[in-house]
Design brief:
Elements (H helix, E strand, L loop, with lengths): L11 H5 L5 H4 L3 H20 L3 H13 L7 H7 L3 H10 L12 H19 L4 H6 L2 H12 L6
Helix pairs in contact: 3-4, 4-7, 5-7, 6-7
C-alpha cells in the first residue's frame, strides 16, 4: 500500500481486510465516515491496475478485499483500461503454459486477475454486459488447461 498517494489515507478497516461487523453495518457515524475512504482506496487500486509497476500489488489487494467493496465490479467494468489490463495479465502467461514453466508469482497474478473478472461476471449490474462482451474468447485457451474438456 506504500504506492498510494499521500492524499489518500488508508483506513484501518481496509488495512485489516476483514468484513464489516454487524454492529458497524448499523449506520453509525464512524462507519459512514469510513465508507468514502474505503471507496477512495479501491478507486486508487483500480487506477493502479493500469500501471504495470503497480499492477501486481493492486491485483493482490483488490482480490483479497473484493468482498468488502460492494461496487467493485461496476468500478472495474466502467474504469477505462481496467478490463484490458486484467485480460493482458491473463494472456501474458499463455507462453508459459506449454511447456509448463509458469512461475509462482505469475500464477498468483493470473489467479488474482481471474478472481477480479469473476467478481465482474457475478455482479448483477455487470453480468449481462460482461456476457455480451468478447472476454470469453481470451479465456478460452486457459479454460482448456484448467478444466480439460471444457467448452468455454
Amino acid at each position: 500500500m506504500a504506492n498510494l498517494q499521500p492524499s489518500v489515507p488508508e483506513p484501518s478497516s481496509f488495512a485489516g481486510a476483514s468484513p464489516p461487523s454487524p454492529s458497524s453495518i448499523g449506520g453509525g457515524a464512524a462507519s459512514a465516515a469510513q465508507e468514502p475512504r474505503k471507496m477512495a482506496s479501491a478507486e486508487q487500486l483500480v487506477l493502479d491496475l493500469c500501471d504495470r509497476e503497480l499492477r501486481e500489488n493492486a491485483l493482490l489487494e483488490l482480490s483479497k478485499k473484493r468482498e468488502i467493496f460492494q461496487d467493485l465490479a461496476p468500478l472495474l467494468w466502467h474504469s477505462f483500461g481496467t478490463i484490458a489490463a486484467l485480460l493482458q495479465e491473463i494472456v501474458s502467461i499463455y507462453p508459459a503454459l506449454s511447456p509448463p514453466v509458469l512461475s509462482a508469482g505469475a500464477s498468483n497474478r493470473v489467479c488474482n486477475a481471474l478472481a477480479l473478472l469473476q467478481c465482474v461476471a457475478s455482479h448483477p449490474d455487470t453480468r449481462i454486459p460482461f456476457l455480451h462482451g468478447n472476454e470469453f474468447s481470451h479465456l478460452h485457451c486457459i479454460s482448456h488447461i484448467l478444466i480439460p474438456g471444457s467448452l468455454i
